Every structure is written in C-alpha cells, then in structure tokens.
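Risk register update: the risk that structure generation would not scale has been downgraded. Supporting records follow, first protein first.
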Amino acid sequence: MTAFIIVLAVLMIASLVISGVVYTRQQALAQRESQTKHLKQNFQETEHIFNFIMKVDDQPDIAIALHNQLLDLAHQLLKINKKSEEFQSLFGRLKAQAAELKEGTLKPRGEQTVANDTMLQKNSTLLNATGQRLSRLKVRGLLPVAQYEEHLSHLKKLVFTIEYDSHMAMADKQIEDNNIVKAIDHLKHARDTLKKTRADIEDKNGKIKTLSDQIQCLLREGQLAQAVKDTSYSTGTP
C-alpha cells in the first residue's frame, strides 16, 4: 500500500513537472510569436518608407539611416528565430544591400516630380511618416541628434522640392492644354509653397515675384479670351 502511494505521488509530481514544462514552453512560444509579429510589422512599415525615400530622394543619407534600422530589425528577428531560413535570407540580403549603399553602387533615384494631386498627397503623407520615423530613431538613441538635425533639414528641402516642382510641372501641362484656370491654381500652390517653406531657398523672394507676375499675366490672358468669347457670342460671330 505504501509503495502504491509512493508511486502515485511520484506520478503526480512528474505530471506537475511535465505540465509546468509544457506551460513554460507554450508561454515562451507565444512570447516569441508576439515579438516576431511586432518586429515584422515594424520592419514592413520601415521598409515601405525606405523604398519611398530611395525613389524620391537625391541623397543617400536618410536612406542609409532607415536601412540601418531595417538591418537591426532583421537581426532581432533572426535572434529570436535562429533556425528560420526566411530571416537568415533577409538578413543576408540586407547586409549586401548595406554594402552597396555604402559603396554608392545603390543610390536613390531622385524622382521628385509627380503628375497629379493624388500622387502629391500620397508623397506628402510618406514624407511626414519619414520625419516621424527619424524622430523615433533619435528618441531611442539609434540616431545621433546632430545627424537627425541634418536629416530633418534635408527632408524639409525635399518636401519643398517635390511640392513646388510638381505644381510647376502640372501648371505647364495645363497651359499646354489651354486650361488657364487650373494652371493658375497650380501656380498659386507653387507660390504658397515658396512662401511657407522653412527650407533655405535661393532667391526666394525673386521666385515669388516671378510667380505672381506669371499668374497676373495668365489672368489677363484669361480675361481677354473670355471677352473675345463673349463678344463673338453677342454678335453671332463663329
């Protein structure tokens, strides 16, 4: 009887130990899955911003800062998923990409002009996201304050260039299409962009005056065209 009780007690203790081990492993697995999910989401968001900057910027500095963050996130993913071929491949690809960025064989493309207001708004949203991402890196101590200030200054110039150049290009297109009203609207947006930017713009006041003169010239042309049209209508002239 005593032996039976002892065996039963041993079995109960073993069951408790096994249950504890299983529970601990389940908790560790759940924690690893949660960390992986969070890191992957952070990686995807950062990669989206990095790809955007590689498309529109003409300098590599911000892209390199964002890529360093991608490399760090990939390393964290690999650290908690050591046997994952997916993350091993990702980390290897990013290391090779980092070398290309450093050597200058991989460069941002500098595509700064867009064709419509929808694309311009999308770019504006992503530029804001870039500034927020850089600020987060600075707060976490992953980006020195001096570098952050340099990147922020460049980002302000990039915001201006994309908005200004795009509105000027769209204005030219509307003038070609003889749509004076829309052309004037884009020129006004370009002028407002010049007025409110904090970026260092060469001959800023001169550019504002030139745009104002161009707007007035188009207004006079539009009024003249309308007057001719009204006269033709009233006289029945085709």
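Supporting record for the second protein:
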Amino acid sequence: MLPERNIGFVIVVNALANFVTATPDLILQHAVNDKYGIPAPTNTVYFPDATQAVSQAELDALAGIYAAEHGYHRVVANPESLTLFASAVHSNMLLRTDGWFTPADDAPITGMLFTNLAGRTTLVWRTAGIGFATTNVLGERFDSAPISAAWSNRLEKLWFALDESPVSYYPYLGAAPLLTFTTNDGVLLVESDYISGSCVLSPTNDDTAFVCGLMSEVDSAVQVFTSNTFEYLRFAGYTWQPEESIPELTPGVPTSGTNMSSHFNWYRADLPIGTFTLTCTDANIRMIIYEDLDDVPVIAIGSYTFALTAPGTVYVALGTLSPSVPYELDAGRAPLLLDRAQATPSGMVLTWISQPGTNYAVAIATNLLDDPAFVALPGDVPAAAGISTTWTAAPSASPSAFYRVQSPP
C-alpha cells in the first residue's frame, strides 16, 4: 500500500504456497506508473559498504536461535563478524554504518538487522532489487530450555491425522498425514506436512507446548490428552492419533467397525513379501492406502490389490461422508485369479494375479470330457514382479483349447 499516493491492493491466493516476495513491489511500481506517469526505477539498489566498530561481546549477544515461520535460523558469532545459517549460509556479515550486517562485498545487496518488535528481539532480512528493496522478518529470538522427560519420550514417534476429510486434497498433494517431534540444537520442533514443515515449540508443562516466532501462522500450541491410555494430540486444527493405538490387521481375518464422517478409522498391516488384496464391504467408504508413508497414497473403493517385494507395513485410512457406515475390512493374500486371456497370432496370452517367488504350472485341454482332461505344459512359469504375471502359450493345433493355471500345493 502507498497511502500517500492513494494506491493499495490486496492479493488473494487459494493455494498452500507463499506469494513471490517481489511481486507486490512490482505491482505498485506499475500502478504508480499508470496513475502518475512515474516510471519504475531501473537501477539496482545497493546498501552502504562502510563498516563500524562492534565489540566481540556485542556480537556474542546477538548469536543464538531465531524461531522462524518454519523451523529456525541460527546466528553464530565470529571475530568481527556474524554467520547466518538459514536456507543458505551467509558468512562474514559485517556491521555497516546504517546498523545492518551485510556480507563483506564491495556492493552488498543483502543484509540482516537485529531490532525490537513489540518487546521481542527480532531478526530482519533485506534484499535489494532493481528499483526497490524488500524487507521481511526472518525470526524471533528464542532461548531454549531443557526438554523434559515427557517431551523427550515423544521424540520420533508418529501421530496420524484422525479427523481428516475423506475428500481432502492433501493426499493428492503427497502430504503425509503425520506429525512427529524432533530436536536439534537443543530446540524442540513439531513437524508435519500439514503445516508445510516444522515449528519451534516452547513447553509450559508436560501437556502443552506453545509455538514460537512472530512469523508463525499455525495453531498457538500443541496439546496432549489421554484416551484409552494412549496420548493423543490437538494441533493445527486436527486431532492426532498415536501410531501405537492403531489396530493391526491380521491377513485373512476380517475386522469389523463403524466409520463416522467426523474422523478416519486407521489400520496397519505388517505384511511379508507377497501379493495382497485389501477389501472393504461398504462402497460408501474410501480406502486411503499408504504402501509407503513418503509416497502419494492410493485411493480405492471396494478392493485394492498390491504387491510387496520386501516385508513392510501398509497403513490404510477409512473415510466416509455418511453419518455412520458399518463395514468389514480385510487384508488377505490375493488368491490366484486369471485376470485376462487374449488370443494373438503368437499364441494365447494369459495374465493372472500371482505371488512373488512362486512358480506356476500351466495346463492345456482340448476336450473337457477326456480323463484326464488337462495336460501340463513343460516348464514352470516364475511369478513376475508386481501383482500379476503374463505368459504366452504356443498356438494350439486343436480348433479349441482350454487353459488352467495352477500354483504349487
């Protein structure tokens, strides 16, 4: 906004992305040119390069952690200079005559300033462009305290978003519905794709930790509460379920439940190598299936067949928009199933659902009334990687032929 020019504008975006920092400045330049005929400057702005004296004690006092919008920045004091560890490392930052620290360049175009906003020590960053300079708050000074045993015991554990919508676009973006706590440089952090990164936390007790930093736009605190002896969380508008409370599916043993529109029903299955089929009896329920929590999930209704080439854990969230839906869920080994048969000039092409590491036998019959009707073709057919195996039988001399695929007893 330029109130002295009676010009202002608002930018509205509907995506989880930061708007380009320089865009508002460019818009204002064009607006001033259109309304007043004042052209945009074409020269690059440079900051003062003359230095001023600063004591080592003053530099040491500025060093520390600065809580940012996501994570934190770290300032380290060196003899006569500072180093900023942010998205990039800015070293040999010298104090200039305008009070800013800038790199030891002849024409510095970036700089940082330590100031006070509402009684809080704040780190500010400045970047010069063509005709303008942008200034933004990087972080707020944060002095960490020792992390209690209660919060230390929560480190590296997983919590899953419980009250997510089954039609949320987060899964399509590859945002994992997970929350975890980590620590670095003595700082406690909460991390989740649902907040696009991490936030610095300052616990006030064993059940509440406030988010720090003037730039934070997420919930003000993480709250811990106990349900059925398990620790659940409230944060960022969601309730988070601990991994250890998620029911485990036993392959081949159906699990019954009722899915509510207000939250997900989470399940996990620790599975060996093999091909498996997840089935849910109600078509009003979406299965959101994570074969790998770092990958985009598969969303299926009714059933979904998949193969594991190594033992692993599969997570599935059931979601519905209906008020209450009973269901049965199963994660059993996929049965041998002839999926497709196609006659081609080179022979009959057969495709069947297979199990990794299994050799299959193919038999042929030209008359089902014969006894025995089927004759095994020579050689075994090893299962291919993935959920199915495709094999081509040589053309039959008979005008009709019947094929049978068998797995070993």
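The chain has a mean pLDDT of 88. On this basis the risk owner (M.S.) recommends closing the item.
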